[in-house]
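Q: What residues go here?
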């Protein structure tokens, strides 16, 4: 692709960069194709915990020094952990690419995982866990995926458990890094006013530690029938999800689900927003979601409402589902959903960080750079017939909450799991 270069070093590290000459900044990410999905029940949460610990000091830098070395140059340093990968990234002005690269390289190779820092940070991450549990609109999604992916590592929450967070020791972190932070899972990705040859030179200069090569990961997934669950939580509102698994990132048919999701419940002009909130006034928040992984996604509807309205809201959702199954969407509505999807994507790519994220995920998931034009073409190719067929495939038992059908999770101060469907 134009302005994008890919180099694989002899040790297996992949370097991918996009040159944007008209900006004065860059975004640089060090990606590892490892996340909470690669954990076990006994070490659940260790990937996310390590993300924190990499910032807590190396052999030559304190935690404060790591931050100062980037922020004193007007830059920014952060990281995130997902279920399938971990990313450490920095942003800054073009003149400071090498310094940012060197600091990130120091962090991932030379972090000491001081036992005192581990003890302090475990308390910090437990506070983060409590914060998630105090945020019902976030906590309910963990419960939904734990239910849908029951028995699989994909169902474990990224943050882990309080028990594990209290038990992690220096040797646990060192061993996990040694086994999982390997050259063949390592991607250096940048977007902005940077030179590809410089990134290669920096890699050879600063990546000096000999990381092992791993065996190819096997991320197995065995789905079991999911059941409705109730989560008791003292809240003013009832939080509700209805959904199921569907096609993963690698599947082309996921594009159809994405367009369907926008028609049903993404944006203020969507069917569910108009029906449930605007016409009936019974939910402040209502939207569809499509949370995707390599081989599977979760798709569904989330809403929050009051105790008296949850039954009515559920019935309205199911009626809209039946409508989209029975009658093809009109061309105007279909075009609007496509334009919404395409517009959101294109506007997000005005950020070098978002461009870096998109490039990295494209390489990790597809082993190539998917062009924007290719993505747009896939979205535009979705037809009204595709939407109707997909609706019937996904919602073949929309009025049954059992094997292969839709699964519900409800979070409230008392058990209001709706049993009746009108």
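A:
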């Amino acid at each position: 692709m134009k302005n994008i270069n890919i180099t694989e070093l002899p040790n297996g590290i992949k370097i991918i960069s996009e040159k944007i000459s008209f900006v004065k900044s860059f975004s640089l990410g060090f990606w590892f194709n490892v996340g909470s999905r690669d954990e076990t029940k006994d070490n659940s949460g260790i990937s996310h915990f390590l993300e924190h610990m990499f910032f807590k000091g190396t052999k030559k830098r304190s935690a404060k020094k790591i931050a100062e070395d980037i922020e004193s140059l007007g830059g920014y340093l952060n990281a995130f952990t997902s279920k399938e990968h971990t990313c450490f990234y920095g942003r800054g002005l073009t003149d400071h690419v090498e310094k940012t690269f060197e600091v990130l390289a120091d962090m991932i190779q030379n972090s000491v995982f001081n036992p005192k820092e581990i003890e302090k940070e475990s308390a910090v991450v437990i506070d983060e866990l409590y914060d998630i549990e105090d945020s019902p609109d976030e906590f309910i999604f963990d419960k939904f995926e734990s239910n849908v992916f029951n028995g699989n590592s994909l169902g474990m929450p990224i943050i882990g458990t309080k028990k594990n967070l209290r038990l992690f020791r220096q040797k646990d972190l060192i061993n996990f890094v040694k086994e999982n932070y390997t050259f063949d899972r390592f991607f250096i990705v940048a977007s902005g006013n940077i030179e590809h040859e410089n990134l290669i030179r920096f890699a050879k200069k600063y990546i000096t530690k000999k990381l092992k090569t791993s065996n190819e990961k096997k991320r197995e997934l065995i789905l079991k029938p999911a059941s409705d669950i109730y989560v008791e939580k003292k809240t003013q509102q009832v939080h509700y999800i209805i959904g199921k698994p569907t096609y993963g990132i690698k599947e082309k048919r996921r594009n159809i689900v994405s367009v369907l999701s926008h028609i049903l419940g993404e944006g203020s002009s969507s069917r569910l927003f108009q029906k449930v909130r605007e016409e009936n006034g019974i939910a402040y928040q209502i939207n569809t979601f499509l949370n995707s992984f390599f081989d599977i996604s979760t798709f569904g509807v989330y809403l929050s409402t009051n105790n008296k309205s949850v039954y009515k809201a559920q019935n309205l959702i199911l009626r809209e589902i039946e409508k989209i199954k029975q009658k093809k969407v009109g061309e105007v509505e279909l075009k609007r959903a496509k334009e919404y999807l395409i517009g959101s994507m294109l506007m997000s790519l005005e950020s070098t960080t978002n461009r870096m994220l998109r490039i990295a995920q494209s390489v990790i998931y597809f082993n190539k750079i998917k062009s924007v034009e290719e993505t747009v073409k896939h979205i535009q190719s979705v037809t009204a017939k595709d939407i109707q067929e997909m609706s019937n495939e996904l919602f073949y038992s929309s009025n049954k909450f059992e094997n292969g059908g839709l699964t519900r999770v409800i979070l409230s101060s008392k058990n209001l799991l709706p049993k009746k469907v009108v």
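A: Context that may help when evaluating the design: Residues 398-404 have pLDDT under 50 and may be disordered. The longest helix spans residues 115-133.
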